[in-house]
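The freezer alarm interrupted the setup, so I double-checked each line after restarting. Inputs confirmed:
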Amino acid sequence: MVQEPLEVLNRYLTEHGMKHTRQREIIVEEFFKSNKHLQIEELLNQVKKVEPSIGYVTVYRTLMLLKECGLAHQRHFGEGKSLFEKAGDHHDHMICIKCGSIHEFEDDRIEKLQDQIAKRINFKIVSHRHEVYGCCSRCQNE
Amino acid sequence: MVQEPLEVLNRYLTEHGMKHTRQREIIVEEFFKSNKHLQIEELLNQVKKVEPSIGYVTVYRTLMLLKECGLAHQRHFGEGKSLFEKAGDHHDHMICIKCGSIHEFEDDRIEKLQDQIAKRINFKIVSHRHEVYGCCSRCQNE
DNA sequence: ACTGATTTGAAAGTAGTTTTCATTGGAGAT
DNA sequence: ATCTCCAATGAAAACTACTTTCAAATCAGT
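Predicted 3D structure, all chains:
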């Protein structure tokens, strides 16, 4: 049974002698409301609509906190800004180099081949990233 | 038939009204002499052994040049510094999160599955990165 | 409400590039 | 061989995207 993100976070906070604040609540709620990969700045913009006084640093720190308690992952597509995604939301990605659109994919056969190869060199997999760059359907017709 | 990197570079330079310099020659030679992924600083160190007056910026610019004429690729493993690798030297990577060692792999079956998936959404692949993070054989016995 | 630790936000600091600019140097014309 | 002009170089400054610091504000157990 999957727990509500806010529950998990609240337990983590209590267990670590940390405090529940209005800012954290707003940021976490906005983060889990969105359905895509978010940059810090993007989440900040969402959050500022609810409470304009919240600054970049607090959003940044809250995302680090979500990472710490396993509720979010940080990804670095190519170079530049990092994106955050909800835990459990992980697929692999095809990224359009023209418009930046991200198309998720998943294939158990690829994962299995990957495991085979790892086993051959006795490598214990913790995580992976598989990103395909190219031109999406829409951008090809332009 | 594969051409010598220096040949390709020299043609590119001439065609673009750019100049052949001692610095470029040294940097390119050192880059292609090495057999691994190099950080800018690492290549700078190699280069400084031959000609100490060469600075970071020139190495940086020469690597950008190699990228431009397709002789090298820039990769960003995780976060932090970027690594450069010779073109044609591309494999996928298993990266040890303890010691940082990089184990190359390659599997046509994975590439084919990747192509299949791309075709389904009419995505035209230009490049990809497939990185597996985990613990290498040696680090597991410690 | 009191107290003491945790959070917050602004500002400063950091890492890794990337750009600027005065000077140097390569190469075709003389 | 020298001139001349434009590209290349190196030092320093600028830039980007974080990450840390610190004084003031906030939270939560007495």
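Quick read of the result. The interface with chain A takes residues 76, 78-79, 82, 94, 96-97, 103, 105, 107, 109-110, 113-114, 117-118, 121-137, 140 of chain B (CB under 8 Å).
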